[in-house]
Write a structure and sequence with these properties.
Blueprint (H helix, E strand, L loop, with lengths): L2 E8 L5 H15 L5 E8 L6 E8 L2 H7 L3 H11 L7 E5 L4
Antiparallel strand pairs: 1-3, 1-4, 2-3
Helix pairs in contact: 1-3
GO molecular function: monooxygenase activity
Protein name: Quinol monooxygenase YgiN
Keywords: Monooxygenase, Oxidoreductase
Length: 96
């Protein structure tokens, strides 16, 4: 069963270019992973510094493997230094 994820990130406005650079590498490398069906970065149109990752994984197992990838671990380490707050992650399965 496919796993849908929405991850919400809020960055300090002084670090927006840094955040985008971190995201670009993360998205590029994640899209290469087996089981990654969608991995898109969206910037909130009304709230500068607020980003969403829209993810679709073939299975929970594929996403679990993603969690151990170096590019994700590096992103988490570097992004945590410039984020306003912790990321909010929502995971679920399509109902209809």
């Amino acid at each position: 069963m496919n796993l849908h994820i929405v991850a919400l990130f809020k960055f300090n406005e002084n670090y927006l270019m840094d955040a985008v650079e971190l995201f670009q590498n993360l998205v590029k490398e994640t899209r290469k992973e087996e089981g990654c069906l969608q991995y898109d970065l969206i910037e909130d149109k009304d709230n500068k510094g607020t980003f969403f990752l829209i993810e679709l994984w073939e299975s929970v197992e594929h996403h679990n493997r993603h969690n151990g990838q170096d590019h994700l671990l590096d992103f988490r380490k570097d992004a945590s230094k410039i984020m306003e707050s912790s990321a909010e992650i929502y995971k679920g399965f399509k109902i209809y």
